Every structure is written in C-alpha cells, then in structure tokens.
Amino acid sequence: MKIGMNESTIENDIIEISKSQRKREANELLDLAKHLIAMPESVFKKLPLDQDLRDEVEFARSIKAYGARKRQLMTVGKMLRRRDNEELLDAVNNSNQKVRQVNARFHHVEAWRDRLVEGSNEVLTELLEQIPDANVQTLRQLIRNAKKEAQLNKSPTSARKLFKLLREMDSGQPLPPLL
Fold this sequence. Notes:
Helices cover 74% and strands 0% of the residues. It is mostly helical. It folds into 2 domains: 16-83, Orthogonal Bundle (Diphtheria Toxin Repressor, domain 2); 96-172, Diphtheria Toxin Repressor, domain 2 (Orthogonal Bundle).
C-alpha cells in the first residue's frame, strides 16, 4: 500500500488489462476451441463442458464448409471467453498427458524391437534378465525371421509380430529402460 493513500482510493483503483493481453488470452481460448473441435470423440465426451458449449462444439464438428466452420469456431471462442475454463483446461491437459504417455510407451517398445533385430544375442540376454517370464523360443525365432526379412527386403511380418509380443510383455511388466 502506498503511503498517503486512503482506503477509498485503493478500492476505486481497477487493474486494467492491456488490449494486447486481452488479445493473447482470446487467441489462447480460440486455440482451445480449435483443439476441442479437432479432439477425438472418445476424449471429447469425457470433458466437463456445459451442455450449450458441448452443443456448439458438436455443431462445429458437423460443419464442412470452411467459412461456416470458422464462424462457428469464433462462436465457440466467444463462449469460452465468458466462462471460467480452469476445470476444462485441466481436463484437456490431463488427456493430452495420457496421450503423450501412451506414445512414449509405444516408442519405447519400438526401440526395443529395433534394438533386438539390429543387435546381437547380448541384447536379448539383457532383456531376458529383466523379464525372465518371457517366451525365449518365440522371441529368438521372431528376431531371426525379422533379420532375414530385412536382409531379403521382404515385408516386415516377423518384426510386426515381435512388436506385438513386446507390447504384450510391456503391458504385463514394463520393459526396462534402454541403455
């Protein structure tokens, strides 16, 4: 509090937000509206939205014409500006985080598959030390067939089967980190 100011002066002071800041916030909400419209239906259904906002977003999803879709996007953006969006932003961020985690697991399994196909028996031994329940014979056979397919430039059928097996193993017990 400044010296010499009385309480009535402090109460009358209103913190003004600059026009640039308001535009940045409006653009962020417009980006949120675009994200809501492009979001997969299964994720969208789980979001905490008011019924009128949900209806407007679903209507925007159904529009095919570019101009009309853009106008509807602006309408959804305007509706978002009039609401408190903390809960919605948290829900969208949580769904995005889950997608990133699933993608990270997918890439981790892919990296293990590639390492097994390109590597030597030590790589398989390293994996088997971490996951002793694995079906060793099936793993060895799929790795051997995947190497042959790669050498002969055939379709990677065995590599796909190896990936599927590794993904199943990863769902039961996570694969160890790559060194």
